[in-house]
Amino acid sequence: MKRPAGAAGSIQWLYAAPALLLMGLVSVVPIGQTFTMAGGFDRIGGDATLWRVLRNTGFFTFWTVSLELVLGLAIAMLLTRPFPGRGFVRAAVLIPWALPTAIMAMAWRWIFNSEYGVMGDLLFKLHLVASPNIPWLAAPGPAMFACIFADVWKTTPFMAILLMSGLAAIPKDLYEAAGIDGAGPVKQFFIITWPMLKPTIALAVLFRAIQSFGVFDLIYVLTGGGPGGRTQTIALYIYDIVFRYQEMAYGCAVTLVMAGCLCLFAGGLFLLLRPRSA
Amino acid sequence: MKASRAGQAFFALAIVMVALWSLAPFLWQFITSIKSPEEVIAVPPTYWPSKPSLSSYVQIFKTRPMFATYILNSLIVALGTTAVCTVFGTLAAYAFSRLKLPGSGVVVNAIMVIALFPATLLVVPLKQLIMGAGLLNNPWALILSYSALNLPFSIWVLMTFFKQIPMDIEEAAQVDGFTRWGLLWKIIFPLSAPAVATTAILIFIFSWNEFLLALTFISRDAARTVPVGIALLSGVTVYEVPWDQISAAVVMTTLPVVAMVLLFQRRIIEGLTAGAVKG
Description:
Chain A is an all-alpha fold. Chain A has helices spanning about 5-35, 50-80, 85-100, 100-110, 120-125, 140-170, 170-180, 185-215, 215-220, 235-245, 250-275. Chain B has 13 helices and no strands.
């Protein structure tokens, strides 16, 4: 099909125009405004809360993404093998990802309830704790644990799905050849699965790390950032600055700090995990 | 590869554990929801209700008349977003994948990079914008924002599918005298109906679930959506959380999503894979 790219080309942009206009208005304009509205940058250095929430967010991101990667990989490898009822199990695995985070955070609040919660009772019945009454959401360590636990439950499916597609792309004869050469399953994993899956893993970790760093719904509903700000993440802090203390300018400044962290993060990860011989 | 009997047993056990782990929090909500209010706060908790009843499902609509309104609002917002996203997304994906626009590669990449970042970064200035437009507490504030935030994903998924439709079909249709619009609506659109359906399902789920913008843009109780409504249902004091009603609310508002996942599992996985694995 040969057509001149001139007049006809610009008319064809009209197809994309509604989408582009809407995205421009909702995504690009606010990004620009954040820069013009931001102020109070001199406060950032001395803002102890900001450093605390950055630490919390980093801790949360590191543990959620690491655990999700391990669990997601295990689930993906389990579900690529054919077995009766696989469709149902795949659907079951998808459910945590598809359910509304904020609503399920309420479910987790109930599970982690210190008096009536099932988590304390289960651990007690398994003789892992001395008393079923654990102040899950009122003590700093357990509260962070609860947030990480609920997030891992929620987002492992996403990791598993991405890794499943990566696993499906690995040629089966590689395993057969390795098997003939006498490599066991563990060795096969390290010489075939891991290197072949690395690009998919890099991508999945990047997506998840960015989302995890921006976590809001889950923690807002589960702990509200408490106790004493020990589970407060940067997204919750921005929300507080702007909508509770009404400090729009400083909120935008912290938003830019967060955006900067994410860019550094994405850039670093990209450099770290890019294919060596490119 | 022949698996040993022990290996097979281990495999089966692992599968059951994975399914149970995934469903457990939802099942626990269900079990809680069919307990009596007294049994809900029994110590230690009972793992199956002694007298299962649906009274908390009735109670929530009686004592909280707004709950039905939240559901209606969520439906309006989710369906509205799905409609806008599918129509705009289809048009744009068609333009980017079939029309060979000069410079479209750069635009598509830019859109994807922006879409990578969490909505938290946009919420403050976006609220100013929406306030300026007088759209606070208006479902359109959510429909337009959700559409814009989900458009990159829709465009990407649709583009992946559009690329699989052979170009010959279009060329033949053009020879037969179809206009570009005729081509899109009479040939491309029907051919890609499964892809459009996949996108629609995912967009519906995303918009049904969204919390941050819904919390920020809507402060009037009668305009709230389900996630915010339920999260704020907790009552004024921590001690009076009506857990029996909340669990009923959780089950009712997550059940449509559970049903969609069970029905469209293959589609959802396809769409997610297409939408997330770029390049």
